Amino acid sequence: MSGTRQMRKKVPVRVDGRELVLSNLDKVLYPAAGFAKAEVIDYYSRVAPVLLPYLAGRPLTVKRYPDGVDGPSFFEKNAPEHTPDWVRRVRLPAVGSTKNRETIDYAVVDDLPTLVYYANLAALELHVPQWRVSADGEALPPDTLVFDLDPGAPATVVECCRVAVTLREVLRADGLTARPKTSGNKGMQLYAAWDGREEASVYAKRLAQLLEKEHPEQVVSVMAKKARPGKVLIDWSQNNPAKTTVAPYSLRARHHPTVSTPLLWKEVESCEHPDDLIFTAPDVLARVEEHGDLFGQA
Predict the structure, then answer these.
(1) What residues contact residue 198 under an 8 Å CB cut-off, 6+ apart?
(2) Pfam families from the xrefs (predicted)?
(3) Long-range contacts at 220-224 (CB < 8 A, ≥ 24 apart)
C-alpha cells in the first residue's frame, strides 16, 4: 500500500525527449474547485502551443503555491538550484533587487519540457517582461506595449471594458493595434506590438494621462488608492523594463483556476456583467479549440 502511495507521489515521465519526475499529482491546488496538480500540468501541457510564443525568449518570474492557493506563496525570479541543466537560463542584472543581488539567473521557457517542469513546481502564475533576450542572453529593447486596467471598487471589469474601447481608438490613431485579455483576476490588459518610437513607459504614461484628462469620471492614471474608487486605473508602469505582467494563458491563483484569457473585441464591447469575462482552464482550452490563438490574430 505504501508503495502505491509512493508511486503516486513521484512519477517519471518523458516530455519531448526530456526526463522529468512529477510529484504529488493528486495534491489539490485549488480546493474550491477540487483542481489538483495533475490538472494544472495537464492544462499547461495542452495550452502550450498557444502559450509558449508569449514566454519564449522572455526571462521568467513565477508565483509558486506549493500548498495550493489557500496556502503560502512566493515570487521566484532565480531558477531553483535543482533546475535541470537543459533548462535555458540567462544571467541578467538584478534591477531594483530587494535582496541586494547584483544578478539573477532567470529561466526562459522556450519549450514544453520547461513548462511542465515549472507546472510541477506548482508555479501557477507565469509572469514575463515586455522584452526578450537575444540568443546570447542579452536584453533586447521592448517589443510589446502593455496597459493594465485595474478597477477601483465599486467599478469592475465592465468599466474596464469601456475604458479599453476608448484606449483602443487612441492607439489605433497612432497606428497601433490593441489586443485585449483578462487579467484572470478583476481587471484586464491591452497589449500592442511596440516599434520603439520612444521609451514605452513615457508613451504609455502620456496616453494614460490623456484619457484621465478627457474622462476624469472614469479614468485615473496614478496609483494613489484615494483617487481610485469607482474609476479604472490605467497602469502604464508595467512598461518599466524591471516589471513583469502575467502572461496570456497563464493560470491565476484565485479560488478557481481562472486564466488570463485573450478576448474577442466583441466580447469586450458587449460585456455587461463581471461574470461575462471569467474563464477557467477548461473554458480556455475550449476557446482555443474554437478560435485558436486570439492574441496572435490581431
Answers:
(1) none
(2) LigD_Prim-Pol
(3) 220/152
